[in-house]
Design goal:
The protein has a single domain, classed as 2-enoyl-CoA Hydratase, Chain A, domain 1 (Alpha-Beta Complex). Helix content is 50%, strand content 15%. The strands form two sheets. Strands 1-2-3-4-6-9 form a six-stranded mixed sheet, sandwiched between helices. A three-stranded mixed sheet has the order 5-7-8. The protein is globular, with a radius of gyration of 18 Å.
């Protein structure tokens, strides 16, 4: 497929899929997420692919969902239609990444915000450059209960997840590693090389054994309540879209709310 908003590069047993909207800080449009979902779909059934890296072209991993996407079919939907749309596109895409049967590694530089945070943390491992930072300012900027998939307490622990979400502030790569969310932090110039070396090391394992191992690890998370938890939050997220607070913020202007969130993060 001739992708327009992602790149796909085969590197031996590793497939590297990158957000490719650098001029928009790799904000995730409906098309970008759809193309990523499609690429993962065929990679799932390609025996030559043993590990997938999710990265980005340019300065930033992702500024989050593109809320001004002019081509989005989400525009103008009522509450019921929005719930159905996000079930398929936002939560659906995220869970398909989580359930992808082969190991995945997020390769993160620069901003990794909201929807970008969600995509990176649905991967199995995270490698970040020293200039990377993570945040989910949705409560502050939109008056909504975080992003659609509340993966935060699962990758940070409950108290640190609360701190990140309650303040809306940035989490540096070093802090994210200290808190257990990031596996490795490396200089920006070494990010691609380090991530690829890790992917190639993983790719040396027998593929069926790796598939079964990931299956057991994800099932462990499910038995601890992961899937039930994120699905319950998805409904809460949508309920928070119906509040007067959220409506007032939207009516005041999306750009103003995002500027406020950026200021709160110190950017």
């Amino acid at each position: 497929m001739d992708y327009q908003e992602i790149t796909c590069e085969s590197l031996g047993p590793v497939l590297r899929i990158c957000h490719n909207r650098p001029k928009q800080a790799n904000a995730e449009s409906e098309r970008l997420l759809g193309e990523m979902d499609h690429a993962l779909g065929w990679a799932k059934n390609d025996d030559n692919v043993r590990v997938v890296i999710i990265g980005s072209v340019g300065k930033h991993f992702s500024a989050g969902h593109d809320l001004t996407d002019p081509l989005s079919t989400r525009t103008g939907l009522n509450a019921e239609q929005a719930w159905l749309w996000e079930s398929e596109h936002y939560m659906g895409n995220a869970l398909r990444l989580w359930d992808f049967p082969k190991p995945t590694i997020a390769q993160v530089q620069g901003a990794c915000i909201a929807g970008g945070f969600m995509v990176a943390n649905m991967c199995d491992l995270v490698v970040a450059s020293e200039d990377a930072y993570f945040s989910d300012p949705v409560a502050h900027s939109l008056g909504a209960a975080a992003v659609e998939v509340l993966v935060h307490p699962w990758v940070l622990g409950l108290r640190k997840a609360k701190e990140l979400l309650f303040t809306g502030q940035r989490l540096t790569a070093a802090e994210a590693k200290e808190w257990g969310m990031v596996n490795h932090v490396v200089p920006r110039a070494e990010l691609e090389q380090h991530t690829l070396a890790l992917a190639n090391r993983i790719a040396e394992a027998p593929p069926m054994a790796m598939r079964m191992l990931k299956r057991s690890l994800n099932r462990t998370a499910d038995m601890m309540g992961f899937r039930t938890s994120v699905m319950a939050h998805f409904d809460t997220h949508h309920l928070s879209h119906c509040t007067d607070e959220h409506r007032a913020i939207v009516e005041a202007g999306m750009q103003a709310s995002m500027a406020t969130a950026k200021k709160a993060q110190g950017g």
